[in-house]
Amino acid sequence: MKVKEVADLVGISVRTLHHYDEIGLLSPDQTTESGYRIYSQANLETLQQILFFKELGFPLKKIKEIITSPSFDRNEALELHRKMLLEKRKRLDQMIRTIDKTMRHTKGEIEMSNEEKFEGFDFSHNPYEQEARERWGDTAVDESNAKIGKMSKEQQKALEEEFDLLYKELASIRHEPADSDVAQEGIKRWYNYLNRIGNYSLDAFKGLGQMYVDDVRFTKNIDKYGEGLAVFMRDAMAVYADKNKD
Predict the structure, then answer these.
(1) Which residues contact 150 (CB under 8 A, 6 or more apart)?
(2) Confidence band, pLDDT 50/70/90 cuts, at residue 192
(3) Structural domains of the chain sorted by starting position, each given as residue range(s) with its CATH number in brackets
(4) CA-CA distances (angstroms) from residue 26 to 68, 87, 103?
(5) Under a CB-based contact definition with an 8 Å cutoff, are residues 4 and 15 in contact?
(6) What per-residue string of b and e applies to 209-222 under the rule 16 or more CB within 10 Å gives b?
(7) What is the mean pLDDT of residues 82-109?
(8) Of 165, 134, 129, 171, which Cα lies nearest the Cα of 148?
(9) What is the DSSP letter of 31?
(10) Is residue 139 within 8 Å of 113, Cβ to Cβ?
(11) What is the Cα–Cα distance from 11 to 197, expressed in whole angstroms?
C-alpha cells in the first residue's frame, strides 16, 4: 500500500507517517524508483502496535525503544495492551456512573455522599511519570517517589496543601515580569519545594517549565489556578535557572 492509502485506512495524516519514517519508528519495506513509499502487511502490523502504545500514552521515543528491542514479543505486547485498556475502560465506566449520579444529585433526585462524588478518580499513578522519566531519567522520579512513599499520610497531606498554596501564591503574581524580584522569589520557593521531594538540576527545572507550556495537559491543569500561570512559570523558571548557573 502507498502512504496515502495507509493514511486513509488508519485515519492519520500522511505527514505523521513521514515523521515515523524520519525518526526510524516505522520505515516502509519498499520505496519505488520514483520515490513512493510502499508499506507491507508487516508494516501495517507494526503500525497497529505503535498506535496501541500511543493510545495508552507512551511517547514515540519509548515506543521505538520497545518495538526495536530484541526481546520484544508482539503477542505479549498485545496482552499488555488489552489489560491496560480494560483497566482504562473500567475506570471510565466508573467515572460515567459518577457523572450520571451527579446529574441526578444536581436535579435533586438523589443524595450523594462526599465519597460517591469522587468515585472513579485515581491519582495514585501519575500519567506524566513516563514522560518525566524520558526527559530527565529515572533518578529524580525514583527519589521523589521513594521520599513521598516513606511519608505518613499526614505528611503527604501537608505536602499537598503546601503545593496548593504555592500555586495560589504564584497565580497571584503571574502578571509580574518573570525577572522581577517578586517573581524570582516565588519561583525559588517552587524550586526548593521540588528538590525537597526529588533531585532536580537547574536544567531539569528549566525543561520542566517548558513542558508546562508545550504539553496542553500541564497547561490546562496549571491554568486552573489562573489563566496564563503556565506561561509565567515557564518564563520565571527559565530566568531562575539561567541566573543561578553563573
Answers:
(1) none
(2) very high
(3) 3-67 (1.10.1660.10), 74-117 (no CATH), 129-245 (1.10.490.50)
(4) 10, 28, 45
(5) no
(6) bebbbeeeebbeeb
(7) 88
(8) 129
(9) E
(10) no
(11) 42
Could you count the other beta carbons within 10 Å of the beta carbon of residue 233?
26
On whether the CB atoms of residues 26 and 20 are closer than 8 A, the answer is: yes
> Distance (Å, rounded) from C-alpha 162 to C-alpha 156?
10
Residues 152-189 have pLDDT tens digits of 888 888 888 898 999 999 999 999 999 999 999 999 99
Euclidean distance between CA atoms 81 and 53, whole angstroms: 7
d(CA 58, CA 103): 33
> What's the gap between Cα 12 and its chain centre?
21
157's grid cell: 497531606
Query: What are the cell numbers at 46?
Result: 507494526
Nearest to 173 by CA among 162, 182, 163, 160: 182
